[in-house]
């Protein structure tokens, strides 16, 4: 009888221990969710939100929304640009899922300063930050121009990422694209190319020069830095963003090569 009573109390103790452990785990989970919710509610990114392709996509959506809300013009074009770019990575099953994610960002937007802090932490390489900025600059120009408010935002953004010295090259890239579109309607390609030489130099991040050896040196330096093959451990999204920058560098060099080589 004594053995049965002892066995009974041992079972009770075991059950109590299990219940306590389960309660403790639930409490930890609740506190974790509450702690993270407090960050999101304040427009801040919680420390647990680490580096991944999925999280980078969410950051790009939040960053894009912060740019889009600066002005009403071109809002739909920019939203479509964002969706068309992100759907390549099979993160959203359809447009509805993307719009729901975008709506969630609108309802709980992130502070730009928090986004900058997150990028600096998880993408410390300067070239990665430059490529992300090129993506956002492309968003700004979807309606054919960049507004003064967007220009100011992008300038502040690049300084926050400590890549302000790339600002002119980034803006120059997209100004060249828009200028080429406008000139193509009225002039031939040769005239348009000549008109945009200064912007091409900005893309290659050098001062205008007639010295083709210097142009070639600048081109080789940028190709070595921005070649997508360097990103062996990067996600498909990171590689795609880098490829866009790489293509712009190649186009700029080809324009100057035809003229000076």
In sequence order, what are the helices and strands, one letter per element?
HHHHHHHHHHHH
Describe the main β-sheet briefly.
Answer: none
* Strand elements, count: 0
Morphology = elongated
Query: Which segments are poorly predicted (pLDDT under 50) over 5 or more consecutive residues?
Result: 188-195
Mean pLDDT: 82
Helix content: over 70%
Q: For this entry, what is the oligomeric state of its chains?
A: single chain
Keywords:
261 residues, mainly alpha
Question: How would you portray this structure in words?
Answer:
This protein has 261 residues and is mainly α. The chain contains twelve helices and no strands. Helix 6 runs antiparallel to helix 7 and helix 8 packs antiparallel against helix 9. It is elongated and about 95 Å long. The chain starts with a helix and ends with a helix.
Could you give a short description of this structure?
The protein is an all-alpha fold.
Describe the SSE topology.
Layout: H1 2-41, H2 53-68, H3 75-86, H4 95-107, H5 112-122, H6 126-140, H7 148-160, H8 167-184, H9 189-195, H10 197-203, H11 212-226, H12 236-260
